[in-house]
Design a protein that fits this description.
By secondary structure, the chain is mainly α. 47% of the residues lie in helices and 0% in strands. The protein is flat.
C-alpha cells in the first residue's frame, strides 16, 4: 500500500513539473514575442496581407507580372509612376515607424542590510625599497649644470 502511494505521488509530482515546464516555455515565448514585435521592426510582418493585396491589384492590371518583378519594382527601384504611392508606403519594410523603444526595469529591495565581516587578516610588512642601493656621484652627475 505504501509503495503504491509513493508511485502515485511520484507520478503526480512529475506531472506537476512537466506542466510547469510547459507553462514556463509558453511564458518565455510570449515575453520574447512581445519584446521583438515592440522593440524591433518585426511588427512589419503584420503588413504582409497588404503586400499580397497590393500584388493582386498589380496582377489584375498586368497579368504577366511575377512576384519577383513586383518586389523589384517596389523595393529595388523608385516606383513613382504608377500613381499609388500612398499604398506603396503602407507595404512592409517600406517606411520607418521609429520604433526605438527602451525598456528598463529595475527592482530595488526595500529592506536590504549588508553585513561584511573580514574572513582573515594578514599582519605582514613588506619592504618596498632595497637597503643596499646607494647612489654614486657618477650617476648623479648627469643632473648637474654644465661647467666651463
Amino acid at each position: 500500500m505504501v509503495i503504491l502511494a509513493q508511485r502515485q505521488l511520484k507520478k503526480n509530482t512529475s506531472n506537476i513539473f512537466s506542466t510547469f515546464t510547459i507553462l514556463k516555455n509558453i511564458t518565455v515565448i510570449f515575453l520574447i514575442s512581445i519584446y521583438l514585435f515592440s522593440a524591433t521592426e518585426l511588427h512589419q510582418l503584420f503588413k504582409l496581407p497588404l503586400l499580397l493585396e497590393h500584388f493582386s491589384e498589380h496582377k489584375q492590371k498586368d497579368n504577366s507580372l511575377s512576384l519577383y518583378k513586383f518586389l523589384t519594382m517596389h523595393y529595388a527601384t523608385n516606383d513613382d509612376n504608377d500613381g499609388d504611392k500612398d499604398k506603396d508606403m503602407k507595404l512592409p519594410f517600406k517606411s520607418n515607424d521609429e520604433c526605438a523603444n527602451s525598456i528598463n526595469i529595475a527592482f530595488t529591495p526595500t529592506n536590504l542590510l549588508l553585513t561584511l565581516k573580514p574572513i582573515f587578516l594578514i599582519n605582514k610588512s613588506f619592504n618596498i625599497c632595497n637597503d643596499y642601493f646607494s647612489p654614486t656621484s657618477v650617476l648623479s652627475s648627469i643632473w648637474q649644470p654644465p661647467r666651463a
